[in-house]
Design goal:
Radius of gyration: 19 Å
Oligomer: single chain
Structural class: alpha+beta
Length: about 220
């Protein structure tokens, strides 16, 4: 078993986010009940956890580092691992609604810049979009009003409609969706949906996934 990797468990408090169960995790520092290691199956039986590369796929209201059972090998479920018992080690108090919103905007900004930076550019429109993204990030950071956000969203929509540059249009489209989510979506759902949409649009899917995981860890560890 790889003891050098950091593993993560995402929950809604102490309740599973996606599983249809009322099981409550026992809290930090305590092992869950021990399940049958011979019956482990992804999405069916066992305790699920992940690493930083796939963390953005499984975001919840709370994020913990965790320790899987040291006595039995986990089952590989591709974007997750399955173990017969699990211990929550540390809860990240840094995973706040504000950080969830900022992470979503980061994902919306990053993907098109990475994928299409080599395309011919309209400097004026690119500067306008960069300014708009910064204003939207200020709103996510509680420094702008709803009225100001709505005005910026109007500018972003116009860029998406009028620009002939695919890089600008692609970024503007994703940023427009994410900025609407700032008003109407739960912050966790916004983070999940924007990260997923960014990966879907990227022609460098695994690289985008790794970038998102690294950015998440930076936020969780308070390095941003």
């Amino acid at each position: 078993m790889d003891t050098d990797r950091t593993f993560y468990k995402t929950l809604n408090g102490v309740l599973p986010r996606l599983a249809y169960t009322d099981y409550r995790y026992p809290g930090v520092g305590r092992w869950t009940r021990h399940l049958d290691p011979d019956q482990l199956e992804a999405c069916v039986y066992g305790y699920h956890y992940t690493d930083d590369q796939y963390l953005a796929d499984w975001l919840g209201e709370t994020i913990y580092t965790c320790e899987p059972c040291p006595e039995h090998e986990p089952v590989d479920g591709l974007s997750k691992l399955v173990t017969c018992r699990l211990k929550l080690v540390h809860r990240f108090d840094t995973w706040t609604p504000k950080v969830q919103r900022l992470f979503a905007i980061d994902c919306a900004e990053h993907v098109e810049l990475r994928d299409f930076a080599g395309w011919s550019d309209d400097a004026g429109q690119a500067e306008q979009l960069d300014w708009a993204i910064n204003e939207i990030r200020e709103f996510a950071d509680d420094n702008r009003s709803v009225h100001e956000l709505l005005a910026v969203r109007h500018d972003v929509k116009r860029l998406n409609r009028e620009s002939f540059n695919y890089s600008i249009r692609g970024r503007a489209s994703l940023v427009y969706q994410a900025s609407g989510g700032l008003l109407f979506q739960n912050p966790v759902d916004l983070a999940v949906n924007t990260a997923r949409e960014a990966r879907a649009r990227s022609v460098f899917g695994m690289a985008e996934r790794r970038w998102q995981g690294a950015r998440l860890v930076e936020y969780l560890e308070g390095r941003r």
